[in-house]
Amino acid sequence: MEIKNVPCPFCGSLCDDIIVNVENNEIKSVKNGCGISITKFMKHHVNAVKSPMLKKEGNLVDVSIDEAIDKAAEILKNANYPLIFGLSTTECEAQSKALELAELIGATIDQLPSVCHGPSIMALQSVGQTTATLGEIKNRADMVIFWGCNPIEAHPRFFNRYSGAAKGMWSDRSKRYIVTIDMRETSTAKKSDKFIKISHGKDYELISIIRAAIKGQGIPDNVEEITGVKKEDLENLTNRMKNAKYGVVFYGMGLTQSFGKELNTDNAISLVKDLNEWTKFSIIPMLGHYNVAGAVHVWGWQSGYPFSINFALQYPRYNPGEFSATQMLVRKECDAALIVATDPVAHFPNEAARHLAGIPVITIDPKFSLTALISEVVIPCATAGIEAEGTAYRMDGIPLRLKKVVNSEFPPDREILERIIERLKEKMKEQ
Amino acid sequence: MKLITARTLKQGMTMEESKLSQSYQDACAIAFLNENDMAKFNLKEGDLLKAKTSYGEVVVKCGKVVIDEGNLLIPMGPWANILIGGNTGGTGMPDFKGIEVEILKTDENILNVKEIIQKLK
């Protein structure tokens, strides 16, 4: 059976033209996907967790799902300052349930932006954002700037499907001037019309100089010494920006993880705001995980905040510097953790992972993540977007419905979280 | 040198298959540097190097890439993260790019993910 228009649950592009061929509940082939997408669909069963598990005498042993859920509820009930983390690679309904659970137990809840695009969201909260849909960009953009991002490797179809080489109604590759600003000549830079090499960590300075130049101030003669960028290249860039009919800046972790962090993104958004006095310009963060934007929206509706939220005082408080999962772990504050659809042991600084390895951890994940290996409780789930349907938000804020293409013997994340909440409420009444 | 961690296509593909696989280790336990830096440290592609920051040290394979001298690129993952600290400067975001790192050629072995996890405890 051929299932068409399947959104790919990997990156923030959520390419929704994937064709999946399924026979006897097995994915036989995938069309239209990038290398990562094909791996994600075709190998979703590789290294999968086969049964709910509990750690007994130092080893993870198979148990029933009821026993695993009971133990998870017990750990969360006994914790004084629990952490819930992850959820950027699952569906919105699970994100909503996780926030409900966080409120119930007074937990800190955080999602992946705290280690990728948190500074983008913090900047957006302070200066707003001139945004657009990827469809609008594909149809209209005649100038595309990739700043500190490398979609050819991280969002492999993004360049051809939505931006650089996408064929739109009024624009296509031949009408589009593409610039990559990066500290190294990435695969994306090689596909661009112009590569501007910037010295590492000098983004804030370069953006400030461009903003001044756009407003008519001269570009300093020593700009190359400050930023690594030739004066002539900057003059050309600012002229092209002002003369574009419809420009867009896509930016990545080159801005958010380098020195300056949210101040870099704040300045980049402000540059785009300035450019709108001359022409139409938009800016979009290249979200790496497919449903970061979903959690930003859902948690925004429920609590008012997008990530790094703390319910210890029974009302939501937001402070990434205090309540990001990394900070909570490095300060050794949390005494239990529920990890859903992510792998902090693989992706957090070792210093943070070390504290996680010393406290009771519950992991809900379809695969044996590195975090599952240090967990007290491991609960396998149906993989959202492959074995379970749900809603996800593309990086430009467009919600799409994920499809279920094969069945799983395990429930989706939302059901597991709901069962943990129910069991927890029962245990609270028993007290 | 300055340490830059970043996503790569191979890291993304192997991560989606299994983080316990040799292919994931091959994709992530590698540090890329400039040709001149390789000569400076007497390294050739495939050699093992030890990278050291104030937070930790890790052995990875050496790879060549077009990048400015003085920069060391390691794909995001458990090997790179041994070198990253937990300080976020009040932003919540660790310094994944731009921290000082020293390198030297080594004949020590690359730790696999299970060995890295053992060391966490």
Topology record:
The complex is a heterodimer of chains A (431) and B (121).
Chain A: E1 2-6, E2 18-23, E3 26-31, H1 35-42, E4 53-56, E5 59-62, H2 65-78, E6 83-86, H3 92-105, E7 108-110, H4 118-127, H5 134-140, E8 143-147, H6 151-154, H7 158-161, E9 177-182, H8 187-190, E10 194-197, H9 203-214, H10 223-227, H11 231-243, E11 246-251, H12 253-256, H13 262-275, E12 280-285, H14 292-303, E13 309-310, E14 317-318, H15 320-323, H16 325-330, E15 337-340, H17 344-347, H18 350-356, E16 361-364, H19 370-373, E17 377-379, E18 390-393, E19 399-402, H20 413-430
Parallel strand pairs in A: 6-7, 6-15, 8-9, 8-11, 9-10, 11-12, 15-16, 16-17
Antiparallel strand pairs in A: 1-2, 2-3, 4-5, 4-17, 7-13, 13-14, 18-19
Helix pairs in contact in A: 2-20, 3-14, 3-20, 4-13, 9-13
Chain B: E1 2-6, H1 9-17, H2 22-28, E2 30-33, H3 35-40, E3 48-52, E4 57-64, E5 71-75, H4 78-81, E6 97-100, E7 102-105, H5 113-120
Parallel strand pairs in B: 1-5, 2-4
Antiparallel strand pairs in B: 1-6, 2-5, 3-4, 3-7
Helix pairs in contact in B: 1-2
Number of strand elements of chain A: 19
Shape of chain A from CA axes?
globular
Helix content bin of chain A: 25-40%
Number of strands of chain B: 7
How many domains of chain A? The number is 2
